[in-house]
Automatic annotation (TrEMBL):
Assigned protein family: Belongs to the class-V pyridoxal-phosphate-dependent aminotransferase family.
Organism: Atribacter laminatus
Protein name as it appears in the record: Serine-pyruvate aminotransferase
EC class name: transferase
Higher taxonomy: Bacteria, Pseudomonadati, Atribacterota, Atribacteria, Atribacterales
Annotated ranges, domain Aminotransferase class V: 5-329
Keywords: Aminotransferase, Pyridoxal phosphate, Pyruvate, Transferase
Modified residues (N6-(pyridoxal phosphate)lysine): 192
């Protein structure tokens, strides 16, 4: 029997405690027990979002939350700016366009970060006049680059624009101080560092976000956040429509695990494991796509494929050996492989992935020094 251990940038491994919590008998979503569960979950979500703002949960994929973050705060014709550093930033701008917004696309070079300075320059220019919102992908899953949310937050505050962040593959893996850094809207999904199966997505919304919401004319029904807030504020909190009760049981347990480990420790673990993995990859003699440590994601690492090595053969070898990794997306298809090290992951998983990398390349006629790579990787792990 073969396992299929997930070292992808999502969905990620689900801890057995979470799976067991989902095995319990279903409850109805209009009874007090559900209200108590939703209240409990909402408080824990505020802890992981590092916010006092309202946090809403919906059944849906991360892309649903991307759409929700457009239609709830803007109107057709609104000028908005997107920092685009890969596939997911491009997707968000495309959704904005579909709803009639006028997106200005900043950056565009995959593998590079969009900086606070880039945004400041735009918002101070003629082209940037009238921009109502700035959209940033915190962790660009397609490349393994992450954005400096704090400094971008200072620029958004200076120009008084709404600040929206896609934290789908970063929340809990990489620090996101929602309130302290002035982020008005943060979206995420269950299947990444939240260690829960796919199917839930989340929004945190600031006071300023709700003010924008009142003016926003984009059509919405399912994703109407104001309607969801009304249900959440009932004496016994509810969702407006049928919630994914079973997934919420699992999420509750995952949030307990995160609280128990402590958010700061969870961030540290992700950083330590990413350093361990990056060191191992380089010691194997492979090329990291993101060389600059300052923007290298603690959640996902992209590895350049040398001439003559096919991505499908490497990921196929992994699959046949019980581990699932990801290939490149969009313009990076066939050029890179991506390894996710977020959520329920430890040094043993990183070590196994490095061993399998060495074996996969060997199967393609390229011998790598796995022993040296493991030695260096474990040294970094122990010293971090
Ligand atoms: C940064 C980012 N945003 C959005 C999404 C979209 O999420 P979903 O696939 O759940 O629609 C993903 C998925 O990988 C992502 O990594």
């Amino acid at each position: 029997m073969k396992s299929s251990f997930l070292m992808t940038p999502g969905p990620t491994q689900v801890p057995s405690q979470v799976s067991l919590a989902m095995a319990q008998e279903i409850i109805h979503h209009r009874v007090p027990a559900f209200g108590a569960l939703l209240k409990d979950i909402t408080e824990k979500l505020q802890y992981v979002f590092q916010t006092q703002n309202d946090v809403l949960v919906f059944p849906g994929a991360g892309t649903g939350a991307m759409e929700g973050a457009i239609v709830n705060f803007f109107s057709p014709g609104d000028k908005v700016a997107f920092g685009i550093i890969g596939e997911f930033g491009s997707r968000w701008a495309k959704i904005a366009e579909i709803f009639g917004l006028q997106p200005i696309r900043l950056g565009g070079e995959w593998g590079k970060a969009v900086t606070a300075q880039d945004i400041d320059l735009l918002l101070s220019s003629e082209a940037g006049k009238g921009v109502k919102g700035v959209f940033i992908t915190h962790n660009e899953t397609s490349t393994g680059v992450y954005s400096d949310l704090k400094s971008i937050g200072e620029v958004c505050k200076k120009h008084n624009v709404l600040y929206l962040v896609d934290a789908v593959s970063s929340l809990v893996a990489i620090d996101c101080k929602t309130d302290l850094w002035g982020i008005d809207v943060v979206i995420t999904a269950s299947q990444k560092a939240l260690m829960t199966p796919p199917g839930l997505c989340f929004f945190s919304v600031s006071k300023k976000g709700w003010e924008y919401n009142q003016e926003a004319k984009c059509p919405r029904y399912y994703w109407d956040l104001a309607n969801a807030l009304k249900s959440l504020k009932k004496a016994s909190p509810e969702n407006p429509y049928t919630p994914a009760v079973t997934l919420l049981f699992g999420l509750n347990e995952a949030l307990n695990m995160i609280k128990q480990e402590g958010l700061e420790n969870v961030f540290k673990r992700h950083l330590q494991l990413s350093k361990m993995f990056r060191t191992g990859v380089e010691a194997l003699g492979l090329e990291l796509m993101v060389k600059d440590e300052k923007i290298a994601s603690p959640a996902v690492t992209s590895i350049m494929l040398p001439e003559g090595i096919e991505a499908g053969k490497i990921s196929g070898f992994f699959r046949n050996n019980g581990i699932v990794i990801a290939g490149g997306q969009g313009q990076l298809k066939g050029k890179i492989i991506r390894v996710g090290h977020l959520g329920y992951v430890d040094a043993f998983d990183i070590s196994n992935t490095l061993i399998t990398l060495g074996r996969a390349f060997k199967s393609q006629g390229k011998a790598l020094n796995t022993e040296a790579a493991l030695k260096k990787a474990w040294e970094v792990y122990e010293h971090e």
